[in-house]
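<instruction>
Derive C-alpha cells from the sequence
<data>
Labelled lines for chain and fold:
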Amino acid sequence: MTFRLHHVQYGRSVRVLWLIEEIGLEDILGEPLDVVEYQIGSREMYESNLRNVSPATRIPALEIGDISMSESGAIVEYLTETYAPALGVAAGQLGRVEYLQWIHYAETMASLIEQLNLQMVFLRPPAKASPVVLKLNVARLRHVMAGLEARLEGRAWLLDSGFSAADIMMGFNIFAAPYYVKLDDFPNLSAYKARIEAMPSYQRVIAREGEQRFYAQDFYPVPTE
C-alpha cells in the first residue's frame, strides 16, 4: 500500500506529519510512512513526480492507497474524518462552525508568514524587499495573531471541546510566526505554544524533523528604508 508524504522540513506539510503522529496512522494502516523530503528553494520539486500528485507542484501532497491529494487543510480534514473523528466536529454537530473557522484561519495566518519568508529569507542581493511592504505584512500578521490571542482567552485550545485538528493546523504557524513577530505581547499565544510543544506527538515530529535549516537567524526585524 502506498503511504507517502511529500514534505519540506517545517513547512506546511508538518501539519500532516503531526496529524499522522497524533492519530498513530502508521499503526492503523500497518504501513510505515514514506517521507519524500524536498529542499526548499531548489528545483527538485519540479523535477520530481510531485507535479503528478499536487496540481500546484507544492507541498504537502499525500498518497495513501489509491488516493492522492494536496493542500494541507484538505488533507487534515480528510484524515481526521476518516481515521480520527474525535479530533474533528462532524457536519450538524455543535461547534462545527467554530471548527471550520479555525482550521481555515490557520491558512490566513500561514499566507502572511509565506509572504514574509519570501521577502525576508528567499530574496538575495541584488534583489531587495520593500520595507513598506514588509511593515504592512508584519502589521497584518500581528493583527491576525491578535485575533488568535483573543480566541485563546480562557481556553487551552481553539475549541471549547478541547484539542482538535484545528490546533494541528495552527502548529506550523506557531512555530514560524515568532521569527517575525515576538510573542512578548501575546501571553495566551505563548502559553498555547508551550502546550503544543509539550504534546508527545508534536515532540516526536520535532525529533523526526531535527534542527530547522530554513531560518538563518532567530528573528527578522523589518529593515529600515
The chain has two domains: 3-87, 96-200. The longest strand covers residues 3-8. The domain at 96-200 is CATH 1.20.1050.10 (Glutathione S-transferase Yfyf (Class Pi); Chain A, domain 2). The first helix runs from residue 14 to 23.
